[in-house]
Amino acid sequence: MQNETIQVRSTDSGQLLEVLVYSKREDQIEVMVGEGVHSLKCQLFPTSNKLAYAGNIMGREIVYERSCEQVHEDLENIKPSTRRR
Fold this sequence. Notes:
mainly beta; 1 helix; 6-stranded antiparallel barrel
């Protein structure tokens, strides 16, 4: 099994961070920020216009710049046998 990582952007500094994905659904993405004992979990939820996912970690906002539609397509490509009909 291969770990999935995604890049999120810190809104205060604009820095790109690579984070580990714990779970990914169309309505929520759970990620791990950092490594080892200094790591923290963060939940990303769709923004109001559904063009990105955003969450807060230690008072700072991070954004995954992919739309709900793009994440849905990603999930369909990973598990085509579980498609809804």
